Every structure is written in C-alpha cells, then in structure tokens.
Amino acid sequence: MKYLSEVSGPDSRVKGDKDSGRVSPLLSTEVFSRRLLDWFDVHGRHDLPWQHDRTAYRVWVSEIMLQQTQVATVIPYFERFMQRFPDVKALAEASQDEVLHLWTGLGYYARGRNLHKAARVVVEQHAGEFPTDSLDAMAALPGIGRSTAGAIIAQSTGRRAVILDGNVKRVLTRLHALEGWPGRPAVERELWHLAEHYTPEQRVVDFTQGMMDLGATLCRRGQPDCERCPFADVCVARARGEQKRFPESKPKKAIPLRHTRMLVLSDEAGRILLEQRPSQGLWGGLWGLPQFDSDAEIDAWLDTHAPGAERDEPWSSFVHVFSHFRLEITPVPARGGRVDGVAEGRLWYDPQAPESVGLAAPVKKLLASLAPFALSQPPSR
C-alpha cells in the first residue's frame, strides 16, 4: 500500500472480538476525513432537496424515506410530502390514511406509519421540537434507530454524531475486508467502532453526507468504481481483488411462496369494496381488497355480507415479492348483491375517481387497471 505513513500509530489496529480474532489497519481520523472531504467537495451530492432549508424535520423525513430506497425514487415523494406536510405539526395533525396515501409506492409501509407516530410524539412530548440534543431521545422515537438518529443530529445541527447506514457499512467493510455478515452483532460492533474512530469533530454535515455518497455512487454493491475512490490505495478488499465479496451476504434461507385470493366486489356504479388492514402486520393500516384462502371462504363471506352477489371465474394470478416471502395473488371478481351500507373499516372505491387513501402496491396496480375496462372482463396487465 501507498501512504503507509498515514496509518495510525499506537492505536493502529482495531482489536477483533474474541470470536473472530480479526485485526485491521486504521487510518488516522484526520487522514480519513481529509481524504473523504477532498473527494466530497468535488464529487459529492450538494443539491438534494433536503439539503436546502436543512431542518431536523426535513432531514428526518428524507432519512426515513431513503431507508432501502434509491435517492432518485425518493425525491418526488419527498417534495410532495413537504408540500402537504411542511412541518411536524402538520404531519402530526394528519390522518394515517392521508400519510399512507402519499407513501403509496415507496414500500415498507411501517416506515410511513412510524413517521406519523413519531410526529405525534414530537408534538405531544417534545413541544414540536426534535430532541436533537440527545442521541438517546432521538433514537427512542418510533422508526428511528441509532444510525438514523445520528444522521438527523449531524445533518441538522452540525454537531458530531456517528452514522452507520448500509452505504457506510459497505465502505468500511471493504476498506478493512471485515469478515462476516454485517447483521451479526459481533461484526456490527466492529463497524460501529470503526465509524466512531473515523468521524471527525469538524465539518460533520459534509462528512456524514460524504460517507453516504461514497457508498451510493462509488463503493456500490455490484460494480464498485475503485479507480475513482479516495481510499483505493489503502482498501484491503481491493488489494486482495475481493471487492465484490464484501460485505458478506446474509445467510440465505428459502423464500416461501404464499397464496391469497382477493375479492374484487363491484356495485352497479362500478365501485369496488375495500377493507382497511389491521394496523399491525402485512400492509398494516392500508386499504385493500378482502382476502381469503379459498373460493369457499369467499362464497361464505358473500352470503353473509352481499347476499345475491354473483361470483365470476378467477382472473390470472400474479406474484408480489416481499423481502422475506413471495405472495401469489388471485383476483376473484363478483358483482351485485345487497350490501346494506358499509361497515366501519370498509369503503366503496371508484377507480375512475380514486380517493386519497393508502393502498397496498399490488391493490393500487390492480385497481388502476380496472378503470378503463368493463368489470366483466379481466384487466389487462
């Protein structure tokens, strides 16, 4: 390696945990931050929407949206969200339905529900001000963990706070060729030790953004651009030619396939009956089509709730993929019947004039496909 003089002296090795016995060479905090910031000043991202009027609220919303979601996808959602909810009080006063409606399409809907819960906690328990003077208080808010709390504090106040999101984990894991899946507690402890060591006291806003940008734009998961990386000469994974090996993947498990049948019950006006999902669990709090395990269950439900309704043959099944399982969905159309009013937790939805309610992604796609077609025919997909 070049620049061996830049490797720290007395504290130049991170002691591995007793299980792994790993040790890794360290750059000094000063050298690491100088290299990163020199790169960030020229190549970093400086014009993202949440970097303007940089408040704790705006940074928080962006950080939650960016969890497991690309920047390009987040930007239009963030801008619509800020237009409707310009501050935490406006968000806290909104209904969950309205929040989830604006979240529809971003996925991982627990993030939206927790965002709404956290806004109410900030208003009710912190007088509408984020507790940026306390990492523990920030991390205690719904949906905010240690790294997100650090990012909010660093980005909104400029005070030193350490982050360790997926991008930062990838950079540090490759730099030190850190063995093991980062989700393992022992590996995560080592990564926090490294992140703590490298985070400087000065220019923390740019440093934390630079770490995220480096992982997102150069130290990418599939195709790292090592030639342009400011740490190429001291990266252990690159020296071994093993960049793509790090970080190690989570041990794989077979992804199960589940099945459900969704009832597409329409009235004479072409409206579709929707039900609100329980607040916890799959698609929690969102509106969707009534779900069943079999046609017999559908028939029993129709006899009770829509006597006289005619069930048609099922439409073609399709698969919706989640992170931990796949769901095969079979739409089952039905029409008519005597539906006397709509119980709480149900509504009639007009695909031609959709309401502002949060919809599960496959349900939104299915309903959108119904709008231009007669309900006697399967929608084209």
UniProtKB/TrEMBL annotation:
HhH-GPD domain: residues covered: 65-217
Biased composition (Basic and acidic residues): 12-21
Protein name: Adenine DNA glycosylase
Residues in the signal sequence: none
Catalytic function, reaction form: Hydrolyzes free adenine bases from 7,8-dihydro-8-oxoguanine:adenine mismatched double-stranded DNA, leaving an apurinic site
Keywords, comma-separated and alphabetical: 4Fe-4S, DNA damage, DNA repair, Glycosidase, Hydrolase, Iron, Iron-sulfur, Metal-binding
Role of this protein: Adenine glycosylase active on G-A mispairs. MutY also corrects error-prone DNA synthesis past GO lesions which are due to the oxidatively damaged form of guanine: 7,8-dihydro-8-oxoguanine (8-oxo-dGTP).
Region ranges (Disordered): 1-22
Biological classification of the source: Bacteria, Pseudomonadati, Pseudomonadota, Gammaproteobacteria, Oceanospirillales
Cofactor(s) needed: [4Fe-4S] cluster
Enzyme class: hydrolase
EC number of the protein: 3.2.2.31
Provenance organism: Halomonas litopenaei
